[in-house]
Amino acid sequence: MTERSPAPGGLALVEALVNTLDIESGADALDTPEGRARLGITADGADRARALRESLRATLLAHAGHRPHREVTPLGALLVEAPLLVTVDPADGSAALAPADDCSLHARVAAAVAEALVAGTWPRLKACEAADCHWAYYDRSPAGRGRWCSMQVCGARAKMRRYRAKEA
């Protein structure tokens, strides 16, 4: 849906997970073995991944100043049991949070969120305000006030709706 480049660092995983559902068409990549494989999950983990995806979407909508798209389990409640470890590089002493289990999508997402918090990039990952989209995108605008995943699609549609409403 978007022409934007992927989010930086671990946020690319969060963006990819949220964007597994095309709200407009209803196509869900988590319904396919290929879509699940891209995220490293099995069919058994698809329902948990969907709950995580929708909780992330609600959080990303909040980053953009919008109310949740629907009632969801709060993100903190889903990530509370995500096992993370503090790793320390012996060469330079730098520390980071890493998933204790690379197979756990929840732990990988928790590590990505922690990394983004430290980097200051977490609030820039947003969900498109278009109700038929809510696609995740990384807001690279100077003021951090981007509203749509794509100015050419969602932004143009919103502006056209406003224009037609004024003309009517």
Brief description of this entry?
This protein is mostly helical.
Distance between the termini: 29 Å
Question: Helix share of residues?
Answer: 40-55%
Morphology: globular
Instruction: Give the helices and strands as they follow along the chain.
Output: HHHHEEHEEH
Strand-residue proportion: 5-15%
Q: How many strand elements?
A: 4
Which sequence of strands runs across the widest sheet? Answer: 1-2
pLDDT averaged over residues: 89
Number of helices: 6
Which residues form runs of ≥5 with pLDDT under 50?
A: none
Q: Which features would summarize this protein structure in a list?
A:
168 residues; mainly alpha; two-stranded antiparallel sheet; 6 helices; 4 strands; globular
What does this structure look like?
With 168 residues, the chain is mostly helical. Helices cover 42% and strands 10% of the residues. It has helices spanning 11-18, 33-39, 46-63, 75-79, 105-119, 151-167; strands at residues 84-88, 95-99, 125-127, 136-138. The strands form two sheets. A two-stranded antiparallel sheet has the order 1-2.
